[in-house]
Specification:
- With 281 residues, this protein is an alpha/beta fold.
- The chain has 2 domains: 134 residues, HUPs (Rossmann fold, 3-Layer(aba) Sandwich), CATH 3.40.50; 120 residues, 3-Layer(aba) Sandwich (Rossmann fold), CATH 3.40.50.620.
- The chain is built from 10 helices and 10 strands.
- A 10-stranded mixed β-sheet has the order 3-2-1-4-5-10-9-6-7-8, with helices on both faces.
- α3 links the parallel β2 and β3.
- The radius of gyration is 19 Å and the shape is globular.
- It comes from Halorubrum hochstenium ATCC 700873.
- This is Universal stress protein.
Length: 281
């Protein structure tokens, strides 16, 4: 598997990329090649006196490269110019990445719904599964908040096609996952009643798959606002990562700021693995 790790060379990025436990987790799920990407914003001019931004970024990536190679990965570095989320998505497609990783500092009381602009835009537009690796905020030397990325996974599903696609990520996560909580939230706005199996029965089908892989599983069926309820479960079970599809059933919601998946990415305490739908051909 190939992972793309995006960095702005900040302390938060350094904490996420150089964390040994995180790197071991990536190895366990099958990642053997890491593409390090840093983007010089288009509005930063290379001709500014005394400053060579590309060279500075390249030296920064070389430091990361040494750490990651010592952890047993093949590494390629990319220093590019442009709009960060667009270039990151473009490189992810070009190198056929299986996973993109971006760090994001955790919440503060004054920024309850705010994440970094690059992480936010990637959550809206990512072309491959996106891991938002949460890092401490308000400290000069931050640490990642959940080192064992996939040890305890909270999977949120509305039983849509893309939620099923997100569940398929367990095919590789299972090599690092020991516990999983499966949650379905029925929103007051849901007026349709699914025929056939109940939500708990449908969750139990997923649980059976995970338990056959040796993953201890528990089920949660909630009623209320989907994002609020998923985040309430996260607070109760403190998973390493919340796994969710980036698009649900609503054709309108996918176009709106504040979708359930975006709310979860912005407000979750720990990491979020966001799985997008297949790209239209």
């Amino acid at each position: 598997m190939r992972a793309l790790c995006a960095t702005d060379l900040s302390a938060a990025s350094k904490a996420a990329i150089e964390n040994e436990a995180c790197l071991r987790c990536l190895r366990r799920v099958g990642v053997d090649t890491i593409h390090l990407v840093t983007v010089v914003p288009a509005n930063v001019h290379s001709g500014m006196p005394g400053v060579n931004f590309e060279e500075r970024r390249r030296r920064g990536l070389d430091r990361y490269r040494a750490v990651i190679e010592n952890a047993g990965f093949d590494v390629e570095a990319h220093v590019v110019r442009g709009t960060p989320y667009r270039r990151i998505n473009g490189i992810a497609e070009t190198v056929h990445a299986d996973l993109s990783v971006v760090s994001s500092r955790g919440q503060s009381p004054l920024e309850n719904r705010i994440i970094g602009s690059t992480a936010r835009n990637l959550a809206r537009t990512t072309v491959v599964p996106l891991l938002v690796n949460r890092v401490e905020r308000a400290t000069a030397e931050p640490e990642v908040l959940r080192e064992r990325l996939f040890r305890r996974v909270l999977f949120a599903t509305d039983f849509s096609e893309n939620a099923d696609r997100a569940f398929d990520a367990f095919s590789y996560l299972r090599h690092a996952t020991e516990e999983a909580t499966l949650v379905h939230v029925r929103s007051p706005k849901d007026t349709d009643v699914d025929a056939g199996a109940s939500p708990r029965e449908r969750l139990a089908e997923h649980a059976n798959t995970l338990e056959n892989w040796g993953i201890e599983t528990q089920l949660e069926v909630r009623h209320g606002d989907p994002a609020d309820e998923v985040l309430a479960v996260e607070a109760e079970v403190t998973p390493s990562t919340v796994l969710v599809g980036s698009k649900g059933r609503s054709r309108v919601r996918r176009l709106l700021l504040g979708s359930v998946s975006e709310e979860i990415v912005a407000r979750a305490t720990g990491n979020v693995l966001l799985v997008p739908p297949p790209r239209a051909v």
